[in-house]
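Help needed: design a sequence for this.
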């Protein structure tokens, strides 16, 4: 008799992540944050972030376009609204499972030409410290959370057809590739685990 199969199952599946979902993630991180500087223990707030829109970048060499809408807070330019248009190139590190911004370019738009020029210099410095940092994403906590949910569902056998049931256990999964598309970010996910198919009825 042949030896029983000792190795588990390993396969890859594509997962579509809508830009609307990523947009919601960025809104939670950025809306209400201030564009500010700190010097000698004193913080100067220049603007507050009102909203964030996200789409596929139209610039060659960049992946995502992020429109950060803001309202000014300074005495000279109070309550003026504008936007920072950021085109970001993404970088995914498979070992650490972290998505980060590799490169970016931006334009500032507001009703005040003087304020736009002043803010461009400020944003160039602060983007690295605040917005760019908050656009980073660590997949590991999400992976651990989803593993629990997946295995909870697999505790009860799934019946894809009459007389056939499937059960199993997912021991791990990881993102192996990220591909920005026109409307979605495509994540290629590799899953590892074990499973069993029970056939209780054969009806051809």
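Sure. Designed sequence:
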């Amino acid at each position: 008799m042949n030896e029983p199969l000792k190795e588990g199952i390993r396969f890859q599946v594509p997962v579509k992540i809508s830009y609307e979902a990523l947009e919601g993630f960025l809104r939670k991180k950025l809306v209400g944050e201030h564009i500010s500087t700190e010097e000698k223990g004193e913080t100067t707030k220049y603007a507050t972030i009102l909203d964030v829109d996200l789409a596929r970048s139209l610039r060659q060499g960049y992946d995502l376009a992020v429109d950060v809408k803001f309202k000014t807070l300074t005495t000279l330019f109070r309550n003026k609204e504008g936007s920072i248009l950021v085109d970001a190139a993404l970088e995914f590190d498979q070992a650490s499972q972290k998505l980060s911004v590799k490169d970016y370019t931006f334009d500032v738009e507001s009703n005040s030409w003087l304020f736009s020029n002043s803010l461009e210099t400020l944003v160039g410095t602060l983007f690295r410290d605040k917005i760019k940092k908050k656009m980073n994403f660590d997949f590991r906590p999400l992976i651990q959370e989803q593993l629990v949910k997946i295995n909870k569902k697999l505790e009860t056998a799934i019946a894809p057809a009459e007389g056939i049931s499937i059960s199993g256990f997912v021991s791990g999964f990881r993102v192996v590739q990220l591909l920005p598309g026109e409307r979605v970010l495509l994540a290629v996910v590799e899953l590892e685990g074990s499973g069993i198919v029970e056939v209780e009825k054969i009806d051809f």
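Helices lie at 19-30, 113-129, 131-134, 139-154.
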